Amino acid sequence: MLAPALALLLAAAGPASPAPHAPAGPAATPPGAKAAPSPPADALERRRAAIADEMVRLGARLQRDIESGDVAAILARVPPDGLSCGGRIVPRARIEHDLRNPASWLHGVLLGGPGAPAAAGGRPASLRAFFAGAKEVAVLVAFRRDPRAAPVGRPCLDFRARDLATPGVPFCFEQRGGKWWLTESLYPCD
User: Domain coordinates of the chain in residue numbers?
Assistant: First the structure.
């Protein structure tokens, strides 16, 4: 069941914050190529606001999928080539295996079960438990610097609630063929 309120906190009013694995500077322009001009600031903010609206709707969908334990719906956001994790790729087959295995860390941190880390200090063991324990859930949308997503940045969403910490990592996305796909591993990669 959805929390009583779903709010948007847009963390894109200023410049995008650097992603942990992406260089903070501008994307390198190949020799002889012209750098693409940056759109005017107001056009950039309008684009970010439109993407943030899409991310909030996607966040509501993910919340429903996690609350209902719909592994297939979560897996439908994982691209065929898998997810990046630091300097490597986690294959989609591994993600599918772990999502379907209640004893795995990934299943545990998203849906609960024996693979979940221990709850501690206001952090529920799973995202499903987070949703169940929160009176109101907010979706935080932030744009991380990423040369492949410049100048808008890579949209990432995280769930927030008063007095509860979110287990797991933020969900970061890129759009391919009109669909929002996860881009970064759901596993901690640092």
Answer: 6-15+40-182
